[in-house]
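[User] Could I get a sequence and structure tokens?

[Assistant]
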Amino acid sequence: MSAIAEQDIKAALASVIDPEGRKDIVAMGWVSAITIKEGHVHVALDAPADRRPRLEPLRRAAERAVDKLDGVLSATVVVTGAPATTSPPAAATAQPTPRGSDRAAPVGGGRDREPKALVPGVRSIVAVASGKGGVGKSTTAINLALALAAQGLRIGLMDADIYGPSVPTLLGLKDKPISEDGQTLTPLSAHGISCMSMGFIVPEDTPMIWRGPMVMSALEQMLRDVNWGQLDMLVVDMPPGTGDAQLTMAQRVPLTGAVIVSTPQDLALIDARKGLNMFRQVEVPVLGIVENMSLFICPHCGKESRIFGHGGARAEAEKLKVPFLGEVPLNMDIRIGSDAGAPIMATAPDGPLAQAYRDIANQVWNQVGGLIGAGARQAPKITVS
């Protein structure tokens, strides 16, 4: 197999003509990134926001052109481009509205556009977030989604971690989503829930070397250009931290609420507090805190060990005056099932571990039902001092 070079890919892309601009996509300057990894090619097309809804045929043509090249094992083309309400790179970081001011200017130079309904048919959107990685946020998001589905609700799961998607591994999904109409993607299905992740589209060992606006656009595409259908709730597995993805979701999407996941240890709680305060600043209701890896119970002697401490998240919830949603123990079965793509809610739905997730799901849905009943919430405007 011959090695593929970037100039060969650009030459192939130059054969793809935009019917509206009447130029090839390379000449129009749309090719913003090309990544080559052992024969797998990923191309990002940085297209104007007003053109993106009509570019699916052109995107597929570009994918076919690259796929025909010798040495290419797979080709993936994604249409990105800065969203219409994206702030310029020099925009300030979100801060609380200063006291004494009636209204602070929104991020992005004072633009005051109304957010679009990116996901029609979805009654509620709940973000599952953490201040740092490694606290079991994705595992919690998946089992929460499955626990909600076990109540007879129509549930979707979106993996918003563009740089490190976990949902394909945790659910054992390896297929690529298809488009039946050439315009929208059909989400994959696992254990009764609909799922979408960038990991379904890009090979798992391909690094996502994307700028902030490209990440924002990809998130919008996974919301807008996926046929989610009618859902009672879309659970969004957020990336860790308080960066571009979190601000994009808060700014562009009417989030119904957020669930914060933390371990009991002080270091994790410090970061969890940051994540919680970020949602408060952008006026997203915090539904509560989950203490993950709460206790370890030895499977041989039954003795309890507080490896990461115990009760820290409960105390933090009381301090911050938010609901404490429950504890999930540090357990081998949860870890083994997650690695094997078989979450505990699917393999042992009636066991004590699954019951912990069921209890959390009950509290979340009870709160969300009240928020839905109070009327649809508009996406907030992020303000700066």
